[in-house]
## 1
Amino acid sequence: MFFKSKAKTEIDYERLPVHIGVIMDGNGRWAKKRGLPRSAGHSAGADTLKKIVTECNQMGIKYITVYAFSTENWKRPKEEVDFLMNLLLGYLRDAERSLAGENVVIRAIGSRKELSEEIQRQIIKTEEFTKNNTGIIMNIALNYGAREELLSAVRHIAGRVQAGEITPEEIDSGMLAGALYTGGQPDPDLIIRTSGEERLSNFMLWQAAYSELWFTKKLWPDFNKNDLYAAIIAYQNRGRRYGGI
Ligand code: IPE
Ligand code: IPE
Ligand code: MG
């Protein structure tokens, strides 16, 4: 016998967020609280991620973008960066079997050229392996920063102007959005951030223009299905006006 949690029964499945963004924060503090190395927090966070993606997919959410490594995270000690890169490599490898089996489409967003060749190859492999799946589209933001994303989009468009393909007047918001890593995807409806920090930290600055933001003090490794349901219910109780009345 399965019992649905109370929160889950309150969700209106006709009005689910189409795209959820997640700033998975607090792994280090989670580990520290337990007297463990920060790496233990990252490993626990990776397990949480699997569970949450599986749940979102089962619920019928169409897109999830998860912030895994920012363009600023290179500032961390080499040991931690190396651990995170290895964890991500393992995650992408493992995803071919586990998440792909659940019909998830996996894509990496962010600047690839700074990543190791091994990770770059694995990204291509995992993307190729899952591209024909029909379940949730999971964007893993890996060496992602919204400012870098905007700069590279602007450079791309400027190149088209220089080549005489378009005039500056033809540049519109659709063209710019299309040149972002998320080109062709809807903007996130809901952005969740764990760990009590209430900022975007360079996550989806363009796409988040009208996203509903939801914060929780819970640290990412402790985040569970019920927290996800709570975020979705809070989202469904917001009035989205987009500047109207
Ligand atoms: C989020 O947890 C994971 C990454 C940024 C890679 P943190 O590592 O930022 O954990 P805290 O914020 O230090 O607790
Ligand atoms: C944001 O978390 C980046 C990721 C979750 C990958 P950080 O821990 O890097 O952000 P700040 O430094 O608290 O803003
Ligand atoms: Mg943090």
Note: The chain has a mean pLDDT of 96.
## 2
Amino acid sequence: MKTSVIGYPRIGALRELKFACEKYFKGNVTESELFHTAKHIRCTQWTQQRENGLDFIPSNDFSLYDNVLDTAVLFNIIPDRYKALGLSALDTYFAMARGYQGDKGDVKALAMKKWFNTNYHYIVPEADDGTELKLTGTKPFDEFREALELGIQTKPVITGAFTLLKLVRFTGTKTEKDFIAQTAEAYAKILEQFAALGAEWVQFDEPYLVFDLSADDIALFQELYRTILERKSGVKVLLQTYFGDIRDCYREAVSLPFDGIGMDFLEGKQSLSLVLQNGFPQDKALFAGVVNGKNIWKNQYSKTVTVVEELKKQCSQVVLSTSCSLLHVPYTLKNETALDEKYTKHFAFAEEKLSELSELKAILDSNLPCQTEEYAENAALFAEKRDSVDKKVQEKVNEIQPSDFFRLPEFSQREKIQKEKYHLPILPTTTIGSFPQTAEVKANRRKWKDGAISDEDYIKKTQEQIAECVAFQESIGLDVLVHGEFERNDMVEYFGENLSGYLFTEKAWVQSYGTRCVKPPVIWGDVGRKKPMTVAWSVYAQSLTKKPMKGMLTGPVTILNWSFPREDISLKESAYQIALAIREETLDLEKNGINIIQIDEAALREKLPLRKSDWYSEYLDWAIPAFRLVHSGVKPQTQIHTHMCYSEFTDIIPAIENMDADVITFEASRSDLQILQSLHKNHFKTQVGPGVYDIHSPRIPSVAEMKDSLHKMLKIVSKEKLWVNPDCGLKTRGVLETKPSLKNLVEAAKEVRNENI
Ligand code: GLN
Ligand code: ZN
């Protein structure tokens, strides 16, 4: 039996790549210093994978920013506006990722979207009628050679042709059909070049195959691979799928001349039955995704062994693999020194998953798998009782009444009451919550956590930061203010720390996009509120101003989606537990004079099942009620805002409306205004704040640019419903760009108001 991983994390075990890139962006290191760090990361990881006995070691899973962007650049899918800047190849790449503003020009970044149902975000390639899709890059070959120099034969990984064409945004009149021939040719060239380099296997990642596929999609998939595989040139090709099962194209996939097919046996509900019922060709290897690439819990060997033994009956060659790339889990438990071993013995991060694969290999290679030492040890661990129960929390969940999911009076009545209460101008301006997390802000928190300063000093310093932030917002004339979230490292971790049932890691970072990483907390037990979490900060901030101060909470679905969830109770049950805790906080804020409360559901869309038929029954039917549970108890005058990122929710608008918030802000400046059209078509009642300022880029948007956005928005949204705000929180931005950007934003709103719209 052999083992494989689909991909490995790449930001560096201690985020070395993040820091090197950020220094490069600031001009503090040279291109070659950045490349040196990158190479070091790749070589360390390959060596480590080899030492762990991994048989199929991936290459080209590394990326300086994003692997889909790498694929776009590899195939010359580079819009002219970036080429026209006349920058170096590396800087052109980063300009596509982050936008460029400097002496060579001013160009926005490409759009960024959520990677399937994960919290990773990819850069959306953009092709127009002039795009010539062809193999121009060398990255996969360079990295393959680099590994060979270490004596390591790797399995290069490339975004597959079908998935690439499905993810490209076509801005001209041409569509995916017009690019089929070019795409097939480019991918065939990849195989030829790898053959020349002596590669044994190439992995094409085709996660798009797990969506609901139309007949056209299936035809496209077949047409592409019929052509590409004709020119395999002796290289073996692995069709790698993940994040679900391939029920719509299983038969087509197994009948194409692939040498291996990778399937996900964890998220792919039908994967096992597809293989058992349809059989599996004897001339192919099945790469069985049985080790979870998304969660951090140890693999339960008894379950895995059962699945693999079933598969072995049908398949002549089974390779043990991960369910998806390990990109979505942290690097290693070795850096976790604070957590008690009674917890960590249940965890497996990327490195530990390598050990799991090799243990599973040993177990499955033995004649009596269940009698191996590894198997017995694992079984004993799973038999242990965990201290995860909180009776009080469970009682509260059991006592939830149907009426607890409904807020009264209904929306339009509340809207009237709130208009009278707040007297906001039309096009009210606000921000999404966080202000730049400067070195000073971070140092203050760090010192307090390390015990280097007293609670009193910490509070005083944080209050100073709040006061400065409030004064700035007043000075530029924002209408609804925020306190700035200086007490938070992260919008989920902060709440986790103040709730019971959570565990925290020190270095367990996971890449979210580019150089941005998150450190998801771990839900270990039943979750409840220990004490008020935000009230004191919000009340202090409100005391400094007559303008409304927006309280700032994270919603239950986002807290859950951005944590590593339990596997011993349902997601619904966890979501309701968290919802009740945040509900207590909401009511506490209201009681203390905070009348506008934003409950962020940045990640609401994240775990939406990839197949439409599962959307409601598996997710929205509990996710939306969980949100309603949080705010249904507030007074009619209290204005509930919510915020969502990456606004791909055109298709779930009724569900969003059903959250029954009063105002929703969301990302819009990188995408077109299509979402607004859909809101309009769906007679969306909730007031909306589509972002006019892209905060994922360091660019400063001009007044004219934001006015232009507002004019476009006003053609679709009535002026009574429109809010003016950035796309998202400002925590990752610098003060220098934030201040002028917000000033411009307020100015743009004022000028448009004065146009007598
Ligand atoms: N209130 C949060 C902030 O401003 C929202 C962040 C988010 O949507 N990701 O940082
Ligand atoms: Zn956001």
Note: The pocket of glutamine (ligand 1) is lined by residues 432-434, 485, 491, 552, 600, 602, 643, 645, 728-729, 731 (CB under 6 Å).
## 3
Amino acid sequence: MEGFKKTKRILITGAAGFLGSHLCDRFIKEGFQVVGMDNLITGSLSNIEHLFKLKEFEFYHHDVSKFVHVPGDLGYILHFASPASPIDYLKIPIQTLKVGSLGTHNLLGLAKAKNATMLIASTSEVYGDPVVHPQKETYWGNVNPIGPRGVYDEAKRFQEAMTMAYHTYHGLDTRIVRIFNTYGPRMRLNDGRALPAFMGQALKDIDITVFGDGSQTRSFCYVDDLIEGIYRLLKSDYIYPVNVGNPQEITIKQFAEEIVELSGTKSKIVYKDLPKDDPKQRRPDISLAKEVLGWEPKVSRQEGLKITFDYFKTLPEFQEVHS
Ligand code: UDP
């Protein structure tokens, strides 16, 4: 049955991260009691410090790959804890594997004990370097298990398998969202991903580093659109994976050019080696999300990039140069 149940207390793992912190804001706004959890390896308390004064918010500093204990009722668990950037997987590969596998198992156990609905953050990376384009949920993917991205991709694939097993074997109420590239305020400036890298370089007037020849494509979704898709998925009763992302596809070279234009920087675009196993193309087919959630993105890249650039400008490291 669609709609939320009576127990409006929700555990959000990765609460101090980019997506986790936006989810905390949204669920508090929707009248939920939010229990945030994070081990702060890649998350930052500055993303949630505005919530600490609210009685609707509690926070546990904890690593979910260890046994998870939360006292009291829980209606929902959103598992968003994970390093999410390719340079993070290289730096902390074992933690990346553990949070997606052991962490997911612990949280599924907690969901079962509390009779909570469990929603997991899966990813377009389950499709690997896709040979089917655009990617539909029925595509099984093309992942190199032992490449640099394998630790993330395989943990997320295991996470999906484990979640479906808890659904079919234990009858647990579950949701799986496959998230495509998302951007917006609270991304980490130095997380190594294209958007913060380009915006940071533009603000410092240093070279903008496009990897490869920049012909690889991505499709960037503004964070508010993504959060709306996740909110609708949780409220729905759809248990199979759903792609949530923006189908507007561009090359990374074009993306860099858009950021150069928006920022008015003097930076030049330079070309560096393409990292191993970097997917050549990526675009979600969102017909399923349209059909089962009545969802599609609303924020254009022009609007979203402007809001995000304005956010990066406010960071302390840019204050002296730009105030
Ligand atoms: N990229 C780039 N310059 C950078 C960082 C990333 O050209 O400084 C490229 C990267 O090789 C990839 C694309 O931008 O082709 C998106 O990379 P990101 O790390 O943002 O996400 P993902 O590869 O996981 O989609």
Note: The chain has two domains: 9-183+221-244, 194-218+248-282+299-316.
